[in-house]
């Protein structure tokens, strides 16, 4: 890194021009509900609270208390179907999409591209968050500074890996990397969902100490945390306790202890403070316990601390209303850079991931080469201008088309289900749109698709001794490349239409039968019943088989009929085409149909992906 491990003051001033400005997040009479088609349930009931600059707040409560739902609402990142009533204001301004710019969120599970190194991941995220406004050199300085702050500089060239598959970074390092990514945009408020879950006590302590250091620079942090040790518990400035969606207490840690002591719920000597609070608020306690969680919430709402908190909230709203609290001047969208710049960043990320996953690409290429050699050798001595030769040509055409249909179509079924969680999270963070994500996925596949299809057909064409003309070869290569692309587009359509691979496969198998039956090899197209005449027109196998057949037989004036009755003999190339209901004048229409289907399936896939993302 050559002495550039600290960020220069000029870069800091550009990135943190308003970071010293105080921010106050308040929520008043906030109720959060989950709506479905048939029911509506309230998750959080009429809660009040505030978060001030430089404060570290622990959000605690039993499972199902509404912690993650409340945090999602405050961060303006609620899931679909969640509705809120009441007020949430940041410096007097109702929260909206601008929260993507001023806040960051650390999720409990880190969704990272395991094929990338720490440095590559940070650089790509810096490009997505900051755009081209900051030079590459200054981005490099910023990344080094953040990795130094999070104690990850030594992992700069380390591959992230995947938990359970190929693990390289430890759990604590992955968590600190998630913090480093969120700090790229210098958020004024940081929300952390269970940042210490799954970590040992030492790693958990490192994470909380790192969060504590962030608050010294004015960043406000709210953490949902699960039963921290007393040492970590007292590092928080405030604690917010929830029970069944109601506020059981909000105040300083020592005030919480005093509040529960006054209720007669004194902590046993062998029990951690946070664990004691969770037990008191749990609805699964013994029936012999005198004070129920509902009673604790009622007592808090009658306490002086609660009324002081409401007074603080009212004061903040009045200060904002009369202009004493400067409103934030933020744009509603984080994407201030160009649409194509973001697309380029996503394409680079996908290329790196594909290049570093040989099982995904290079093993498939090796498999295709083996199949191409076997197919070519099997037909190497069967192709000639005879009746059996004509049958062999049509047989190898079917194999070429089907090999470039079914393998690619099923290979992409898992692409979008696997990448959907990461896409959904980054889309909610307003880093990019559905169209950019989808196009980047397709563009990253194209080089491997072109390499696979071209290599496959060249090997088969040469070994099987198909028609030795430039036009015949070019038409065959073009048709096979289009077939593979249309098949992948169709696979993407089924992949985005269904939520799981098994469900997509269950519907794709019957569709495959339609493709094969109407390919023109097994049945004459014109003999199909009238009610089913539409089926061949959705079969790219039919269009491709016709195009390749025309390229092989157009202009062939003679076929040997020795030993074959004249009525059963195919005398020339036109007879062969007519035998399969193909027309020599349809070549251009076949290619137009293949291209149309390619764009149609991709458009449908993009539509269903956007629909799924909007509902999630």
Automatic annotation (TrEMBL):
GO cellular component terms, A-Z: cytoplasmic vesicle membrane; plasma membrane
Keywords: ATP-binding, Membrane, Nucleotide-binding, Transmembrane, Transmembrane helix, Transport
Family listed: Belongs to the ABC transporter superfamily. ABCG family. Eye pigment precursor importer (TC 3.A.1.204) subfamily.
Name of the protein this chain belongs to: ABC transporter domain-containing protein
Entry membrane topology: Multi-pass membrane protein
Domain ABC transporter, chain residue ranges per copy: 25-269
Main location: membrane
TM helices/strands, residue ranges: 437-464, 470-495, 507-527, 587-609
Species assigned in the record: Aedes aegypti (Yellowfever mosquito)
PROSITE patterns: ABC_TRANSPORTER_1, ABC_TRANSPORTER_2
Domain of life from the UniProt record: Eukaryota
GO molecular function, one term: ATP binding
The UniProt record lists the keyword RNA-binding: no
Gene that this sequence comes from: 5578750
Subcellular localization(s) per the UniProt record: Membrane
Pfam families: ABC2_membrane (PF01061), ABC2_membrane_7 (PF19055), ABC_tran (PF00005)
């Amino acid at each position: 890194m050559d002495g550039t491990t600290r960020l220069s003051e000029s870069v800091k001033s550009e990135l943190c021009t308003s970071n010293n400005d105080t921010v106050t997040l308040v929520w008043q009479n906030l109720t959060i509900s989950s709506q479905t088609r048939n029911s509506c349930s309230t998750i959080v009931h009429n809660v009040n609270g505030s978060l001030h600059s430089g404060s570290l707040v622990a959000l605690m409560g039993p499972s199902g208390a509404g912690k993650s739902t409340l945090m999602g609402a405050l961060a303006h990142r609620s899931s679909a179907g969640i509705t809120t009533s009441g007020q949430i204001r940041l410096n007097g301004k109702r929260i909206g999409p601008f929260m993507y710019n001023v806040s960051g969120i650390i999720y409990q599970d880190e969704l990272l591209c395991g094929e990338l190194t720490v440095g590559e991941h940070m650089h790509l995220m810096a490009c997505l968050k900051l755009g081209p406004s900051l030079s590459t050199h200054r981005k490099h300085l910023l990344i080094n500074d953040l990795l130094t702050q999070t104690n990850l500089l030594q992992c700069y060239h380390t591959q992230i890996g995947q938990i359970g598959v190929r693990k390289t970074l430890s759990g604590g390092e992955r968590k600190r990397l998630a913090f480093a990514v969120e700090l790229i945009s210098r958020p004024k408020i940081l929300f952390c969902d269970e940042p210490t879950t799954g970590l040992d006590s030492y790693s958990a302590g490192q994470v909380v100490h790192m969060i504590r250091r962030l608050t010294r620079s004015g960043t406000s942090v709210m953490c949902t945390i699960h039963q921290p040790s007393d040492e970590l518990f007292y590092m928080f400035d405030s604690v917010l306790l929830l029970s069944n969606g109601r506020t059981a207490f909000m105040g300083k840690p020592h005030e919480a202890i005093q509040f529960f002591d006054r209720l007669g719920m004194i902590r046993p000597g062998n029990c951690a403070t946070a664990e004691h609070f969770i037990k008191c608020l749990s609805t699964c306690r013994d029936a012999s316990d005198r004070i129920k969680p509902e009673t604790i919430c009622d007592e808090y709402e009658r306490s002086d601390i609660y009324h002081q908190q409401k007074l603080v909230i009212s004061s903040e709203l009045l200060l904002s209303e009369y202009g004493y609290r400067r409103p934030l001047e933020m744009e509603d969208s984080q994407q201030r850079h160009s649409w194509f710049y973001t697309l380029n960043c996503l394409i680079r990320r996908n290329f790196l991931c594909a290049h570093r996953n040989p099982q995904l690409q290079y093993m498939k290429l090796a498999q295709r080469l083996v199949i191409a050699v076997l197919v070519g050798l099997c037909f190497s001595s069967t192709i000639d201008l005879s009746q059996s030769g004509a049958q062999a040509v049509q047989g190898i055409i079917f194999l070429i088309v089907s090999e470039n249909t079914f393998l690619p179509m099923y290979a992409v079924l898992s692409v979008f289900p696997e990448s959907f969680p990461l896409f959904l999270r980054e889309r909610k963070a307003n880093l990019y749109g559905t169209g950019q994500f989808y196009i980047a996925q397709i563009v990253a596949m194209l080089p491997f698709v072109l390499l696979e299809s071209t290599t496959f057909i060249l090997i088969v064409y040469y070994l099987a001794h198909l028609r030795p003309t430039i036009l015949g070869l070019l038409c065959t290569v073009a048709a096979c490349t289009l077939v593979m692309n249309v098949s992948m587009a169709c696979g993407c359509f089924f992949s985005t239409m269904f939520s799981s691979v098994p469900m997509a496969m269950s519907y794709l198998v019957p569709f495959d039968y339609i493709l094969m039956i109407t390919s023109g090899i097994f049945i004459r197209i014109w003999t199909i019943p009238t009610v089913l005449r539409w089926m061949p027109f959705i079969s790219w196998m039919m269009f491709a088989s016709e195009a390749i057949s025309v390229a092989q037989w157009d202009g062939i004036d003679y076929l040997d009929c020795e030993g074959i009755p004249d009525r059963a003999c195919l005398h020339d190339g036109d007879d062969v085409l007519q035998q399969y209901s193909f027309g020599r004048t349809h070549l251009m229409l076949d290619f137009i149909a293949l291209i149309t289907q390619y764009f149609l399936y991709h458009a449908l896939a993009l539509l269903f992906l956007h629909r799924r993302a909007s509902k999630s």
